[in-house]
Amino acid sequence: MSINSCSFKDRCVSILCCKFCKQVLSSRGMKAVLLADTEIDLFSTDIPPTNAVDFIGRCYFTKICKCKLKDIACLKCGNIVGYHVIVPCNSCLLSCNNRHFWMFHSQAVYGINRLDSTGVNVLLWGNLPEIEESTDEDMLDISAEECIR
């Protein structure tokens, strides 16, 4: 199945926050499931979360597929919050996926529904520009209050 037969446009955009220290990690999160094991809930994002996480440890391969991964940790508290798919395997690329390669563990991150420009309606992926005009850092400053609440 290809990305063309999958639709993610009606999914809610989430602000992702570290459960350990409440740091905003991304303003472009989406609830997801692990392609290799759909019992595992995750969050994902399409843009590298700058100034919020960094790589930690060595690259490794999954047991279920052949994706090459590297863990990411929150820059504020140092806890591992997810991983980056450095090299996706063919099986995962050919499956129904959202082209998000930054994954966050639901045990380490929580999501808050992001509102659209009216501040009333939940922002949907279909209405989110590929590259936003405001920088991710600007959005992180605005979103920080949401994570603390």
Protein architecture, described:
- With 149 residues, the protein is mainly beta.
- The protein has one domain (11-120): Beta Complex (Metal Binding Protein, Guanine Nucleotide Exchange Factor, Chain A).
- Helix content is 12%, strand content 36%.
- It has two helices and nine strands.
- Strands 1, 2, 3, 4, 5, 6, 7, 8 and 9 form a nine-stranded antiparallel beta sheet that branches.
- Strand 1 (14-18) and strand 2 form a beta hairpin.
- The longest helix has 13 residues, at 136-148.
- The model is unreliable at 1-5 and 133-138 (pLDDT under 50).
Can you summarize the main beta sheet? Answer: 9 strands, antiparallel
Separation, N- and C-terminal Cα atoms: 40 Å
Query: Tell me, what is the CATH class?
Result: Mainly Beta
Average pLDDT works out at: 83
- Low-pLDDT stretches: 1-5, 133-138
Determine the structural class based on helices, strands and strand pairing. mainly beta
Q: Characterize the overall form.
A: globular
InterPro entries: YPEH2ZP
Protein name: Family with sequence similarity 72 member A
Family: Belongs to the FAM72 family.
GO cellular component, one term: cytosol
